Structures are given as C-alpha cells and as structure tokens.
Fold:
Amino acid sequence: MSQVFLYDTTLRDGTQREDISLSVDDKLVIAKRLADFGFHYIEGGWPGSNPKDAEFFARAAKLNFGSAKLAAFGRTRQKNSQCEQDANLQALLDAATPVVTMVGKSSEYHVKVVLSATLEENLAMIRDSVSFMKSHGREVMFDAEHFFDAFITNRDYALASLRAAADAGADWLVLCETNGGKLPWEVEEIVREVSLHIKTPLGVHCHNDSGCGVANSLAAVRGGCTQVQGTINGYGERVGNANLTTIIPNLQLKMNQQVVMPEQLRELTSLSHFVAEVVNLKHYAHAPYIGHSAFAHKGGIHVAAILKASDTYQHIDPALVGNEMRSVVSELSGRGNIQLRAQALGIDLNNEDAQQVLNHIKHLEHEGFTFEAAEASVELMLHRLRRDYVKPFELIDYFVIAERRQNRGLLSEATVKVKVDGEVKFVAAEGNGPVNALSTALRSALSAAYPVLKTVRLIDYKVRILDSGNGTSALIRVLITFQGGGHVWTTVGASTNIIDASWHALSDSLEYALVKLEGSPVQAS
Structure:
C-alpha cells in the first residue's frame, strides 16, 4: 500500500463558495479537527489578502496541530519587483508556517493576457519566488494554475513552468485543473506524461465544474500524483472543489492507497457533519460514503436481501467511514424494512407485528402521510408495540382560535385538555400563530410531569398542499422538527385541516421526545 498525502484547502479555497463566511475562531476549530483526523497539510488561508487570514496564522502559531503541517497560500512575486520588496511574499513569511504554497502561471495564454508579461518574465517570477521561500527554510509547493489546459495548448511551456519551480527547489509541483472542465482519461494521460519528464513529487488540485472533480483526482493518482488537494464536502468557488470526503475512502478502500489510519477513517462522517455545522450549511444527505442516505435502503426486495447479507446491496461496510445502515420506511417498503428498523431500536418484532405496522404505514401514506422525512413517527409506532409501553399523555380535546383585535393586532389562543398520570390538565396559551399557541399550551400542560420537555424547541415547520385542485378543502401535510438533548427529529401529520395535521405531528414529536430523551418508553406501573 503506497502513501498518498492529503492537502486540505477548505479554509481557503472552500471559503470562496459564495455562501460561506468563516470567523477566525471558526477556522481555528476546523483546522484542529482536520489535524486530529490525520490530514498531512492544512491550508489556512491567504495572509496577504485580508486581515482575517493574517490573524488566523498569528493565533494558529500558538496551537499544536500534531503531525499536520500548516500551509499559507499566496502567489509568485509581481512582475518588475524584487522578492524582498514584494508585500505578498513578505506576508507569507510573516505567517510563519512550515509550508508555503504559491500559485503561478503555467499557461502561455494567461501569462500574456492576465499578467501582460513575457513567457520568460513569468518563468523568472516562478524561479525567484520559489528560491526566495526555500532560502527562508520553507517547504514550498508550486501550484501550476490552469496546468491541464496549458499542457494541451502549449505542452513545452507548461513543462517549462514546472521545471522553473523544480530547479529553484520546490518540494511539490501541484497540477491544477483550475477550470474544472477536463475528463478523467485526459487528466491521467497528462499526469503520466509529466511524470516522465519531471521527478519532483506531483500533486493535483481539481475543481468540479464538469462533475469530475473526484474522478479527476483519482485519475491523477493513477497517473503518478502522490498528493491530492481538495475540500471537505466539496466546498469551493462556482460548483466547488474536489470533495475529499469522497476521495479519501475511494483512495483507501478502493485503490489500496495509504491515506489515514483505519480509526481515523471511521471519523470521516462526523468530520463532514462537523464542518457543515461550522460553515452553517445543511449537510447533503445523498453524499457518497458520509451522507445520511448513503446506506439507506427503501426497496423491500433490497432490505429483505440485506437482512440475510448486508453486502448484497452495499459496496462497503458503512462503519468503515463512521456511517450506518438505515432502513427507509414508506409505501414501497416490505416487512423487512420494519424489522430492520425495529432491530436498530432494540425492539424484538415478530412477523405479525411487523406486517401490522407496515399495513398501517401504507394506509397512512395513502391518506397523505409520508414517513421518509419523518422517521420519528415510525419509531414511535414501533415503541407503541412494546408490551411495557404506556402513552405518556392522552388528548381529551383542544380548542384553537385566531382573531384580529383592534388594539392588539393578530392574536392566536389555544386551550388543551390532556390526561397525564391519571390527572386531567387544562391549559390555555397565546402564540404568534395557532400552531405556536397549540405547542405552547401542550408543553405547559406536560412540563410539570415531564420537565425534560422544557429543553426541547421547535426548529422547523413545513406545510405542503397535496391536492391543490381542491382549493381550501385540499389535503395538507405537516412536518414538524424539534431539537433537544443533542438530537433532531421530525414527525408528520396529514389532514384537510391544517390545525389537526399540526396537532398529530406536534403531539407525536413531544411523545417521541420523552422516549428519546428519557432513555426508554414510559413504563407501566
């Protein structure tokens, strides 16, 4: 098993995605998590471009990143300037990182059009900049921008740019597929040819504009690259960079390349979710390897096979990347889906009970419910089958009004009557809408008996009209999501009445909270 080095540029290239903006604290916690995972190189930013990145490097210098090497990013010196007077190069030195990554032109077209320089001037800029950084004891990576396009249009000059960096002492030559438009066989062929002429270690830096960022990175390794650059979750400018959360397991599990230790690979899913949380973006559920749906099985035939042998419909054991197999329950499910879900919950479900739940789900989905996005509702059905389960509360009735008052504007009020531990609770509450009022009243009625409900909060409420052709009498589906105790769960309700649909979802969510957060169903006395 050969070694491939991982270079993460989430903190620089990843932040060029248009809806990402990280604070210095955000960048520091991500950098530490990347180091703990086992990345060899972590690019922290461009210290010469903004004060935030300069502060990041100043604070990072006081932290211990273990064996991971922190890299500062910049460009080669400007035309008609000396390295000693170049502000960008000075900022790279001031960052005091062991590694410096400098981007330079490898394309004749870019040299002439973008730099307005001669071809020899550009080669001198590369040589001088690399030599300058090496004289200050830095490990130097030269990012050959637009290299693959450059190689096709002027092969000799593209190679000359690499030789200029190599002759000046560059430790790595990184071939950049900057526009993201090349295909895997092109990348592999070009890398293979470059490796015949250049003996300095090669890396690859791909973008995903043609959807081939991961494939191109893997092809480059086949061609001879021993360093792969990318970002967590594929964050990056335009459509993004090559996605390291897909590249890493492909390298290690499919291509027999040593990347990280097996125990580190098992942290991949949690790392992906951690970074998504810090950058404040929803995690992509269908991402390969680390997505919530990556090992989710919906078809009844699939699940029936998986119950006999898990590898029948899975390309790897999900535990290798810290993920888990799931059974998705819907009208397409078979009895095996229900049994697999019950098994995951530690519930022993016989065939008769599983069929009963399945029939009930299919009936409800015909009535407008959906359970793919409301797994908590399914779990609740399974818990209710337990002989020791007693519902924590029972609805007697509720009453909701919404009115507009002259001096107070819109007002919603709800009253709820429920039975809790044999005692009838009658509570009224106001809210900024009828569902909010209903939620407040129900939680107030239950909180004395179940204080844990004070720690949960509603974080999402979705309404979908299922048959809009029926106008105001249309069937409505409501999905409600709560958060509490480190968990997030969603329940569903459906009715021609939005309040009734909301009640079903709301009451199920609070009942589920008691199951989840108290550790077990309410026990019969």
